[in-house]
Amino acid sequence: MLPNYSTDDVCPSSLNSDSNHFDMMNIAESFSIIDFYKNKTIFITGATGFIGKVLLQQILSKCCSVRKIYLLIRSKRSESCHERLAKMLSTSILFKNLQDKFHLIKAIDGDITAKDLSLSEEDRNRLIEEKIYPVVTDKDVEVYLKQLTEKYADYDLPEGHSALQNRPNPYTLSKAIAEWLVKEKYQSTLPIIVCRPSIVISSYKEPFPGWCDSISGVSGSFILFGLGIGQKFIVDKTKTTDLIPVDLVVNSLIVCGAYRASSHYSPDKNVVHITTSNLNPVSWDRLFNLCIDFERRIPSLKQVRPISIDYSNNYTTVFDKFRYKFHQIINHLLFAAIFDLIFMVMGHKPLMVKIIQRFHKLMFEMKFFSLRQWNFVNNNLPYIYKLVDEKERPLFNCDVTTIDWEDFAASMCHGLRKYLLKDPDSTYEQARLRRHRIHVGFRLFAIFKYFLFYFICKKYLLETILDVTFFYSIPFTIIDLAIYSYLIR
Question: What pLDDT, on a 0 to 100 scale, did the predictor assign at position 163?
């Protein structure tokens, strides 16, 4: 069984000594990223994912002299690994201008969860010839993972489950297992450097400002917020979050790989945090307010109702949880049901209830991170970045202090609109007009709701049943409307 390790056990002080003395060091010389990757063969897993695509694109764009790039891609029932690669290269905008580099890419059929990566004998021999050594899992860890898979394959592990070993979800557990395995089995035999990005979000500058292809996590939350679908979020807006654009993550991976092979490498710098909280912090409140501002300027054509200004719920007290449940039922599920009913009457497939259900699942998955203050020490990355050849630093920017969060929010909102919601840039005026109509319509509907509430709850209940005159019912009406307005805002 896998030992019940703590976070410090996964990354002990010997590995995680982020020194804060790099400014006082006399850096005699630098190393070149481009020279290091010249004529090198690179093996990448996860290349079909969000970070993997950008990593592949950036290597092809900036490290033009690489010899070969092998991508481990798992075949599906309907698609081989080669078909999946061809589809990715032909459909993703990232590779539109890189056709002349496609001959450098080779797909390898395999599965990172299987023994020996499920490589064929031919592919295994080819990788060995290229001096690339696939990781073979430790027997105890393999047994542990097999037990987890068999026992919990069709089961959503709740927060606090013993199988998660004090971690909030299986995602963070799997990363800890991978890091622990590398530390225990290969630290002394393979040249390893561990890079730990925080919450990875859409790109800041590269390959395109605001590029993203995944409606999940923080990006998905901001999309639902901007469309008016998500009205209440489980988030403490006063807390500092730790978000990192994907292009800075990828640049850091490329730089750290070259640093590990350079003569400048130091063993106390082999765990690198790719984070922003201690060098360039940003709060949830600032991010949401920036998104509110840009929603006014560049709304989406797919917006369905006005966004909520009072968006946060700390989810700590009983009243907080009651308010969130109230919003979940009234402002989310009821709205989604009515929306889907109208859709079905119009002959369309209902979808809003499923979206809302996924939204609430996402909120509970993220609350471990959105309700806490995060401050990660990030001194190793600036140290390594200062060692990079000065001419190459702008090409491989890893400096998180260069992020202007207002500029990033503008890029993110534009990117989510363009790349995920597929709204053309030419539709800005049309979208603003639609937004205005939606706001007017919902304000009129709010007035109708209040009058309906008044006549049903006061005119009928007080005057007909309780025999209270209209004059004496006015104070009750004002109090109840105030409470009702507070609950539904």
Answer: 62
**CA-CA-CA-CA torsion for 92, 41, 201, 96, nearest 10 degrees?**
-20
Q: How far is CA 222 from CA 127, 248, 306, 330, in A?
A: 42, 20, 14, 21
How is residue 280 written in tokens?
């360039």
* Residue that is written with structure tokens 């010389």 in the block: 29
Q: What average pLDDT does the segment 67-87 reach?
A: 90
| Cα–Cα distance measured from residue 148 to residue 142, given in angstroms and rounded to the nearest whole number | 10
CA Rg value for the chain: 26
Q: Are strands 105-109 and 68-73 parallel, antiparallel or unpaired?
A: parallel
Helix count and strand count (H, E) for the chain: 17, 11
Other beta carbons less than 10 A from residue 319's beta carbon: 8
**Residues 241, 284 contacting (CB under 8 angstroms):** yes
Contact 233, 363 (CB under 8 A): yes
447 compared with 426, residue with greater pLDDT: 426
Which SS3 state, helix, strand or coil, does residue 392 take? coil
**Helix pair 352-370, 217-226: axis angle to 10 deg:** 120
Q: What is the pLDDT of residues 78-92, one digit of tens each?
A: 889 999 999 999 999
Closest by CA position to 382, among listed 199, 252, 258: 252
Rounded to two decimals, the pTM is 0.81
Record the tokens describing residue 28, joined without a space. 């005699």
Angle at 42 between CA 37 and CA 46, to 5 degrees: 130
CA separation for the pair 268, 273 (Å, rounded): 13
What are the structure tokens assigned to 140, written together? Answer: 């105890």
